[in-house]
Design a protein that fits this description.
Dna Topoisomerase Vi A Subunit, Chain: A, domain 2; 2 domains; 4-stranded parallel sheet; globular; two-stranded antiparallel sheet; about 200 residues; 8 helices; Helicase, Ruva Protein, domain 3
């Protein structure tokens, strides 16, 4: 079948469609990325293809914390210097990188790979909640820090997990909500300001 006049060749259209499936990539961005790949040297395009292939072939989920890793268990879970009584629960693997950058947390992690979101058809069984509960059995874990995002889904997920863990005698805490450093008070929204007041500390 001949290509319709003015239409992109099928390989181009297919790549545009695949880019469009990625989060945050709209139709125009998908087209720009595709045509950029057409212009770059073939070795650069092949290097990108190889990187994507290796990403899928050489990474796994850590059997302990569910983080993305090349070795199982991951380096953090193998680190004997970590506080094994403390687990920080995050939504996605990227959140671990954010917490690690602070250099202020020395416990272990657990990645849920999402949050409870009925509107999107995501329930507790779609998350790594069962794996978290398995880790808490045995009595070694004393505290779970819920580090989910401060939105409706994150709060609902935090409350759900708290209801499961509290009867087991495990302390469940969550990150304080408040004003970011360098911000002006007049620009803070009501919820953030009220949380900052609730979580005030001694000077």
């Amino acid at each position: 079948m001949n290509q319709p006049l003015g239409a992109a060749p099928p390989p181009v259209s297919r790549l545009i469609e695949e880019f469009h499936k990625l989060p945050g990539i709209g139709p125009k961005s998908a087209q720009r990325l595709t045509y950029h790949l057409l212009r770059i040297p073939p070795e650069d395009a092949l290097a990108l293809a190889q990187a994507i292939t290796e990403l899928k072939e050489k990474t796994v989920l850590c059997s302990v914390c569910q983080n993305v890793t090349e070795t199982d268990p991951c380096g953090i879970c193998r680190d004997e210097g970590r506080d094994r009584t403390l687990i920080c629960v995050v939504e996605e693997p990227l959140d671990i990188l954010a917490v690690e950058r602070t250099r202020g947390f020395h416990g272990l992690y657990h990645v849920l790979h999402g949050v409870i979101s009925p509107m999107d058809g995501v329930g507790p069984d779609d998350l790594k909640v069962k794996e978290l509960l398995e880790r808490t059995r045995g009595g070694a874990v004393r505290e779970i820090i819920m580090a989910t995002n401060p939105n409706l889904e994150g709060e609902a997920t935090s409350m759900y997990i708290s209801r499961l863990l509290t009867p087991m005698g495990i302390r469940v805490t969550r990150l304080a909500r408040g004003l970011p450093m360098g911000s002006d008070l007049e620009y803070a929204d009501d919820v953030t300001l009220s949380r900052a007041l609730e979580n005030r500390q001694d000077v």
